[in-house]
Automatic annotation (TrEMBL):
Its EC number is 2.10.1.1. It comes from the Bacteria. Belongs to the MoeA family. Its cofactor is Mg(2+). It catalyses: adenylyl-molybdopterin + molybdate = Mo-molybdopterin + AMP + H(+). Keywords: Magnesium, Metal-binding, Molybdenum, Molybdenum cofactor biosynthesis, Transferase. Residues 176-314 form the MoaB/Mog domain. GO terms for cellular component: cytosol. It comes from Syntrophomonas zehnderi OL-4. GO terms for biological process: Mo-molybdopterin cofactor biosynthetic process. InterPro entries: MoaB/Mog-like_dom_sf, MoaB/Mog_dom, MoCF_biosynth_CS, MoeA-like, MoeA_C_domain_IV, MoeA_C_domain_IV_sf, MoeA_linker/N, MoeA_linker/N_sf. Pathway: Cofactor biosynthesis; molybdopterin biosynthesis. Catalyzes the insertion of molybdate into adenylated molybdopterin with the concomitant release of AMP. This is Molybdopterin molybdenumtransferase.
């Protein structure tokens, strides 16, 4: 089988228009309806107007707890001239009670003085006071809700109140999702083989379908075989309104989606001028739309949202809900090629009086960015990227209220930051977002006022102290305080049993040893360079010195799964991966907090979380840490 090639590099808007026009010509947007019990109608969309079958209320009702009276019998009542109404001329009622026609007003119980001979009042009642007339809420025959309306909790209540038993709604659109790929498995095994991937994209797309109001039907995984993929499409075609084929849309040797669509129907688009998600496919089979989404999770989500969501909402007959947007400044330069619409996932936080967007890793295969992101930045194809500080609109996937309670920490990675994230959110209502840029990256972010605080473990070669001298050098004109989070054990992570017998830094010069390093500016990298200098070893003597990872866990994963023999990292990461650990040093990991960027309440919450028993308990379970300085303010720098 020859490789597929991209048929086009079509602009997104043109592809969307072409797809919609084709479906319009196929009469695909026409709606089917069904009649369902009203109590099952939550979230459904009305296919025609719904009329009230009875008035509400359908009788004259009391609007208050009190007494029903003839208003004429109360005229003239004042504090200086109270009136007593005999017992046979009023009726005690509760809210919602029927009011007989001989009464035309209700007096609240708190305005009545009950006496043996009747009731005493000091204020006249006006006609129809606190009485609900027939049809005050709804009149029989009135339209309760028009067509193309999503039935929410309030609409549902009104329909039931108005005596509606059944309602005609738009039939739910059925979306068939076919995951393809010989490398895919249904669920993770204890020991997965290299090259095996747990299939998860279909579940993400199914959830999006349900969120939008459609029904998702998942087909079993289909291996990379053109005949089997073709048969899967034919199997789902009769019952599906929309077919989505996951993976197989690129130009690989085993990417068959475009061939299957061409054989069974009409291939409209293969390849979009978009990033991520270029190898998207649009087609029609048997008058029904087919979308081929790429295999990478971020690409799959983006393509499905941009191409499936508009046609689903149009077929349902409702407008796409408007997303919240915020105007932000971008934290760093984002290069982007001309002629391509690029979508970048970001975090957002308020820094002083401005909102700042922080681009996340742009890898299309990094599904965790979908979980961590606050929104997406669209760089239009006419732009050649954005400069740092540029204003931009962010389409949010979180509420603006969540953004306003967000703290951002840029700096060195440590596993204990995750414990702070959990405790701050659970106990203090503070949302903490972290990004790993290394200790020096954290200091530069502090200097530019782009982070509320930063995790640091920078060793001063001359004094043996941590962090203070660097902060005094780079932040001389800012107010900050240095708080210890933990002291942690750094060492060489090795495979179980330490097969190469690595015992110290000198052993890294053994040419059999493949090392995995941390990125430039990371405190662990600085510690390694210090230890190499003490051992009279040049970095060039270390096999793998220039191979970099950005977190301790990534170093441990490289040792466990990627053929590396060792790397410098904290004990907790070795324990998490089931690896052995050769202790090398104990270092101080501190948080530098900018006093002008963090409110007193936020600072109190942060310190309380650090000093909490829950935090210390989690750290001790993790292992490889010391807590004798935890939560202590080590240094204050006031101007």
């Amino acid at each position: 089988m020859e490789r597929n090639v991209y048929i086009s590099n079509m602009p997104l808007e043109k592809a969307q228009q072409l797809f919609a026009e084709k479906l319009q010509n196929c009469n695909w947007f026409s709606q089917d309806s069904e009649n369902i019990p009203v109590k099952d109608a939550l979230g459904r969309i009305t296919a025609k107007p719904v009329m009230a079958r009875r008035s509400s209320p359908h009788y004259v009702a009391s609007a208050m707890d009190g007494v029903a009276v003839k208003s004429s019998s109360t005229f003239g009542a004042t504090e200086t001239n109270p009136i007593i109404i005999p017992s046979d001329e009023y009726l005690e009622v509760d809210t919602g009670d029927y009011v007989p026609k001989e009464y035309d007003a209700v007096i609240m119980v708190e305005d009545v003085n009950f006496l043996p001979e009747g009731i005493q009042i000091i204020k006249a009642a006006f006609p129809w006071q606190y009485i609900r007339s027939i049809g005050e809420d709804l009149v029989e025959g009135d339209m309760i809700i028009p067509s193309s309306t999503r039935i929410g909790p309030y609409e549902l209540s009104s329909l039931i109140t108005a005596g509606v038993d059944n309602v005609t709604v738009v039939k739910k659109i059925r979306v068939a999702i076919i995951p393809t790929g010989s490398e895919l498995i249904e669920e993770a095994a204890p020991h997965m083989l290299p090259g095996e991937i747990v299939e998860s994209n279909s579940y993400m797309l199914m959830s999006l379908c349900q969120e939008w109001g459609a029904i998702a039907i998942r087909h079993d995984i289909v291996i990379d075989d053109q005949l089997l993929i073709k048969q899967a499409v034919l199997d789902v075609l009769p019952d599906a309104d929309l077919i989505v084929i996951c993976s197989g849309s690129s130009a690989g040797r085993e990417d068959y989606t475009s061939a299957v669509v061409s054989e069974l129907g009409e291939l409209l688009v293969h390849g979009l001028a978009i990033r991520p998600g270029k190898p998207a496919i649009l087609g029609v089979i048997d008058q029904k739309p087919v979308i081929g989404v790429p295999g990478y999770p971020v690409s799959a989500q983006l393509i499905f949202s941009l191409l499936a969501r508009p046609i689903l909402y149009k077929k349902m007959g409702v407008a796409i809900p408007e997303d919240d947007q915020l105007n932000c400044s971008i934290s760093k330069k984002i290069p982007s090629p001309m002629g391509v619409d690029e979508y970048v996932l970001v975090n957002v936080a308020r820094i002083e009086d401005r909102l700042v967007a922080y681009p996340l890793n742009r890898g299309a295969g990094i599904s965790s960015t979908l979980v961590k992101s606050d929104g997406v930045l669209h760089i239009a194809r006419g732009q050649e990227g954005l400069e740092a500080g540029a204003n931009c609109n962010i389409i949010l996937n979180r509420s603006p209220q969540e953004i306003e309670r967000t703290l951002i920490t840029l700096g060195s990675h440590d596993l204990t930051i995750d414990f702070l994230i959990d405790i701050l959110g659970k106990e203090h209502g503070v949302r903490l977002v972290s990004a790993n840029v290394g200790s020096m990256g954290g200091i530069m972010a502090l200097r530019r006022k782009e982070t509320h605080f930063a995790g640091l473990h920078l060793l001063d070669y001359e004094t043996g102290d941590y962090n203070t001298s660097y902060l005094q050098k780079y932040l001389p004109d800012q107010k900050w305080l240095l708080v210890n989070l933990v002291k942690r054990h750094q060492g060489l992570i090795v495979a179980p049993g330490n097969p190469l017998g690595i015992k110290n830094i000198q052993d890294l010069a053994d040419k059999r040893v493949l090392y995995i390093n941390r990125q430039k500016g990371a405190g662990t990298r600085i510690l390694l360079d210090y230890l190499l200098k003490k051992a009279n070893l040049h970095p060039s003597a270390i096999n793998g010195y220039n191979r970099e990872e950005y977190t301790h866990l990534a170093v441990a994963a490289a040792v466990k799964n990627d053929g590396c023999d060792t790397g410098l990292a904290v004990y907790a990461s070795a324990k998490a991966m089931g690896l052995d650990f050769v202790p090398i040093a104990v270092e101080r990991y501190d948080l530098c907090i900018l006093a002008d960027l963090v409110s007193p309440d936020q600072l109190d919450s942060l310190l309380a979380a650090i000093r909490s028993d829950e935090f210390k308990k989690q750290v001790n379970i993790c292992g490889g840490y010391e807590l004798d300085l935890c939560g202590q303010i080590l240094y204050r720098h006031d101007l």
